[in-house]
Amino acid sequence: MKKSFFTVAGNRLLAENTYEMVLRGDSSAVKKPGQFVHIALDGFYLRRPISVCDWSEHSITMIYKTVGKGTAYMAGLEEGDRLEVLTGLGNGFDSKKSGNKPLLIGGGAGIPPLYALAKKLMQEQKQVFAILGFNRVDEVFYAEEFASLGVNVIITTVDGSVGRKGFVTDAMEIDMADYTYTYSCGPEPMLKAVYEKAVSDGQYSFEERMGCGFGACMGCACQTKYGSKRICREGPVLEKEEIVW
Amino acid sequence: MVDTSINLSGLHLSNPIIPASGTFGFGYEFAEIYDINILGSFSFKGTTKEPRFGNAAPRIAETHAGMLNAIGLQNPGIDKVISEELPKLKQVFSKPVIANISGFSLEEYAYCCEKIDKEEQVGIIEVNISCPNVHEGGMSFGTSPESAAAVTKAVKAVTSKPVYMKLSPNVTDIAEIAAACEEAGADGISLINTLTGMRIDLKRKKPILNNVTGGLSGPAVLPIALRMVWEVYKKVSIPIIGMGGVSTAEDVIEMMLAGATAVSVGAANLKDPFASKNIIESLPDAMKELGIKKLTDIIGGAHNA
Prior knowledge:
The structure holds 2 protein chains of 2 kinds.
Chain A: E1 2-15, E2 18-24, E3 36-40, E4 48-51, E5 54-56, E6 59-65, H1 69-75, E7 82-89, E8 102-107, H2 112-123, E9 129-134, H3 143-148, E10 152-157, E11 164-165, H4 168-175, E12 181-185, H5 188-197, E13 202-205, E14 221-224, E15 227-230, E16 237-239
Parallel strand pairs in A: 8-9, 8-12, 9-10, 10-11, 12-13
Antiparallel strand pairs in A: 1-2, 1-7, 2-6, 3-4, 3-7, 5-6, 13-16, 14-15
Helix pairs in contact in A: 4-5
Chain B: E1 6-8, E2 11-13, E3 17-19, H1 28-31, E4 60-63, E5 66-69, H2 78-92, E6 97-101, H3 106-116, E7 122-128, H4 145-156, E8 163-166, H5 174-183, E9 188-191, E10 195-197, E11 200-201, E12 206-207, E13 214-217, H6 222-235, E14 240-243, H7 249-258, E15 262-265, H8 267-271, H9 275-289
Parallel strand pairs in B: 3-15, 6-7, 7-8, 8-9, 9-14, 14-15
Antiparallel strand pairs in B: 1-2, 4-5, 5-13, 10-13, 11-12
Helix pairs in contact in B: 3-4, 4-5, 5-6, 6-7, 7-9
């Protein structure tokens, strides 16, 4: 964990209620896809945990959805604004477990951390498939970005306004018979549906209301088959075999 | 040079800053980012006889100038704390620690205190009779002078370490309860624990916390904590560890002027992991600014009209 100041280098609307923010600063504490940052915002007592979508030596890219007052405040930030951020939080995904044909399944605001993971898996010469699920066409983001990494992308929308009509799990059945591993991030009902349908082992990234974000307050602890785990520290990524619904 | 040191029931502390129980775990998360030996001491996560997972999520809600928590005393249980947490803590913290103990019956309080009494690393036992987030025991012991005194006596009978009773602000007259603890043999008083509160999710139209209510902490509660430390200081002669919303060196000084001998920092550690360190480092300058040479000179100073 590292606490440092970042400067907003970009903050653009990507899709309905969905923004991409680029921060410039010291990203050295970010080690793995699936980790998150915890952002202090003026006028809010608690920080906001946002997953890392991508990073380079001096920048961090995040994609967030405006779901409350904190994220609405973030949407109003402009280039040059400064933010105090805790970086390098959470365990992140382990790309080594993927086998040669991993399947990435993301829903809405759960998609961003899968981008850095896809990038890493492509670097490791894996054949990567991704199912990205949205409610409707207005919400769709990053389909081209995933595709330009060389990922085989399938878009699903609940109303069928673009891509395959239905849920991400419907596409799992039709298009993906021989995947070797599953990585998933999205709303909990989606994670559970993927968990029930997946025929491979996998890693699932969870979300919970957090206090500190670094393991001190126990606010985000959850039960697993191997005892209590803090989503912010031993998570947010849990192994399929340890999840208790 | 200013003197920030204090004495707490025979323990010499290089400064009065004590991260509060439940906001500092067993120290390691913080030891990874700074040397926690700069602390006066710290109070470890509230420990019970049996391991506890605590309440279902969500357990945290944001408020104006603060937060609500409803963790529900999650801890690995006294045996694991002694066999695993304390040895690990010894690697990163060489000072006496404050053991925060909770229970659901007099027997459980006594059981844990008798066990922790044998641990050399423990300098003071802080007995939590004020947790607002458990449905049996917990806070109920701290809401009447009689039951607070009964826990004090039960604990004092099994330990020779100084015993500080941690009191709830969710009472009519906290000073009366503090006085009952003093009469029952308490060596000191810790106050305040969190204030019971709640928030409602406007979209779901339901309480945010799964437990419905939680404990409020953060800057929002500082004035209440100061008032209660003030009242207890007037009523008892044993030392007070003052806490509630302390976030700056100035807050520490204010708390000591109200009557605290030492000061705990709670929610501030969760908002900023470096909060206790920053307070300790800025304390000498804040003292100089206010013409304070020796911190112990100001304890209860605001009472001298």
